[in-house]
Each structure stands twice: as C-alpha cells, then as structure tokens.
Design brief:
It comes from Lysinibacillus composti. The protein is built from 12 helices and 12 strands. With 343 residues, it is of the alpha/beta class. The strands form 3 sheets. Strands 1, 2, 3, 4, 5 and 11 form a 6-stranded mixed β-sheet that branches. Strands 9-6-10-12 form a 4-stranded mixed β-sheet. The structure holds (2R,3R)-2,3,4-trihydroxybutanoic acid.
C-alpha cells in the first residue's frame, strides 16, 4: 500500500483516527511539517483494487462510485487506486493475493471463490435464481451475511455484494436454441468445476480458462464460444469475435468486493464505515446501471451484427438437473434456503 502525504488541514478525520490509534493516551499525529506552508501533513492511506473488466463496464460503475465516495467521505485520508482489465492478475490469483495481503482488494465474479470457500459452490448452480430481484434480496439479506462470515474465516472481508448477472452463451457456429445445439462446441467456462460439468451435460466441450485469455482465444478460434452476462458481452466488444448471443440465463453470477481483512481492521472504525458505506452506494449505482442499460446494450449488439435469440430454458434445466442432484447434497440447506427466498 503506497503512502502519500496530504495537508492535515484538509483531513481532520485522519488526524483523529491516528490519534485514536495511539492507544489510551491522546496522541497527535506526528507527521512531518511542510516548512513552506507551515501546515502539518499526515500520511494518507492508498488502497489498491484490481478487477477483470473495463472502466466503462458495470464493474467500472461500481468501482468509480466506490472511489468517489471514499475519497469524498474520508476527506482524502484514503485514496483508491483501481486497476482494470486484469492488470494485477486474474480472479483466482486475486483471491489468493487478497488472502495473503499482497493485494488490498478485488472486485470479482464469485465463481472462483468456491475454490477457497466451498459454500460458494451453491451460487454457481444453474437456474438457482428466478430473477435479479430474488438474487439481490438473497445477497443483501441473511444468506449474504452468512456467506460473508465464511469469507472472514479465510481472512477475506467482503466490502459489499455487487452483480455480474445472468450468464448467456455466445458463439460463432450457430444459434443455441436447445442443448443439442452445443454438441462439440468448445465453450470457455470460468475455472469453476460445476460450470464445466453443466456444459458437458449440455453436450458442449467445456474449456476452463482465465478471463484475460478469452477474447484472443475466441479471435484465434482456440474456443468457439463463452458465457457471460450482457454487460460483459457488450463492454468486451464480443461482436468483433462472436456472431450469436443465446439468452439462456443459465447461471446468475454475483460479484464480490473482496478485501484483505487484516488491512480492513487496521482502519479506524470511522474509516471502516466510510469503506462499507461507499461499497453500498457503489452497489446501488451498479444495479441502476445494469437495469438502465442492459436492454439497450442488447439492441446495440444486434445493430453491430450479432444475432440474438431467446431460448426455452426447460430442456437446459432438464439437462442440468443430474449435475444439481450430484452436488446439491453437500449444500442442501443453503440451496433450499436460497430457493425458498424466491420472490
Ligand atoms: O468477473 O471470468 C468470467 O467469465 C467472469 O464472469 C468475468 O471475469 C467477470
């Protein structure tokens, strides 16, 4: 975490925070004094965040809102440095780095977390959530809190839930209208075992791959397709490498704002509140961005030459059921609680 110096006059919060950190006796910040202006300056804390997506994506909407809120409400005592396009590694690497403290935080799809917290496997079950309202109420309620506790047990603070969204299939062979259409199609999946099994059950050839390799792999024909929510298909400019979008909505991916918990606890209670409040505001901004733009993004993908088709999900649900039955036993209680929360 890089340290920067700011004028104390502009950041009374930090001065109080630093004094409070001095234990029982009142300590004042003993930072260097700027000889020119005579002002006393104290260290500002900089936090570094990584994400896979572009700054103009729905992830970018979340993170730019977070950055603005933190720097506004911490009086500049906390600076946020966001790195887009997997600049500081892929999602799975990021979970490990945040856990070890070599990366402060990351905004990622929850899929890869199941490799660290088994309960997260449930979130990647196909057709688990009825709609966005169902999913958002689950993650912003008791179940979301329970999952956050599981994350804390491995040293990771979830600053706040976000949304990746309902995942749809893109490919360059033909429209996907029924599972049989996926026969032999090389579909990139996240590094999530249950996703690989679901696409094998659909008849596809699942190819697990980190996000940063997907666009060039599609361009080079190493894979035929992939699956992601519309906002990612749009912001990734997949119309340049894919011809078909099939609206299967087969999995809902939440997004998680993972943060090194030791670092989080090093902030004063006031600063911790600034961080969590900023994440809440960012979540609302992202939800609004998604709800406002997704329909228009589909129309724009069509205008750019992509063929978009609806599907009857029942055959996909039937094909996926054996995979659900195989794994549900391990997480039956959580699975049933989520299903029961459907609006
Ligand atoms: O987090 O890997 C994926 O397909 C994820 O949905 C993407 O990185 C957004």
């Amino acid at each position: 975490m890089k340290k920067k110096y700011l004028s104390l006059l502009s950041i009374p919060v930090l001065a109080v925070g630093l004094a409070a950190c001095g234990g029982g006796e009142k300590e004042t910040a003993t930072a260097p004094t700027n000889s020119d202006s005579g002002e006393t300056s104290v260290e500002a804390k900089e936090i570094t965040i990584n994400t896979t997506q572009t700054e103009d994506s729905h992830y970018g909407e979340y993170l730019t809102t977070f950055e603005e809120e933190v720097e506004k409400n911490s009086n500049g005592a906390i600076e946020v440095s966001v790195h887009y396009n997997s600049e500081l590694g892929n999602e799975r690497d990021n979970v490990e780095s945040v856990q070890m403290g070599t990366l402060d935080g990351a905004f990622i799809s929850s899929g890869v977390i199941s490799n660290f917290v088994p309960e997260f496997n449930v979130l990647d079950f196909p057709f688990l959530f009825e709609n966005s309202e169902h999913a958002r109420s689950v993650f912003n309620g008791e179940i979301g809190d329970e999952l956050n506790e599981k994350l804390l047990s491995v040293g990771i603070k979830n600053l706040g839930w976000g949304e990746n969204g309902f995942r749809n299939i893109t490919n360059s062979k033909h429209p996907i209208e029924k599972p049989e259409d996926l026969k032999g199609i090389k579909i990139r999946t996240m590094e999530v075992p249950i996703h690989q099994e679901v696409f094998a059950a659909f008849g596809a050839a699942p190819t697990p791959m980190a996000w940063s390799e997907v666009f060039t792999s599609l361009q080079q024909g190493v894979i035929d397709g992939q699956e992601n929510p519309i906002p990612i298909i749009y912001s990734s400019k997949f119309e340049e490498v894919q011809d078909y979008v099939s609206l299967t909505g087969h999995v809902y991916s939440p997004a998680v704002f993972i943060f090194n918990n030791e670092l989080f606890e090093s902030f004063s209670p006031e600063q911790q509140q600034v961080l969590t409040d900023a994440a809440k505001a960012a979540q609302q901004a992202e939800y609004e961005f998604i709800d406002t733009n997704t329909a228009a993004q589909i129309e724009e993908l069509k205008s750019k030459g992509m063929q978009v088709n609806e599907v009857d999900i029942k055959p996909f649900q039937d094909a996926a059921q054996p995979v659900i039955d195989k794994y549900k036993g391990d997480y039956a209680e959580l699975y049933d609680k989520i299903k029961a929360a459907a609006k």
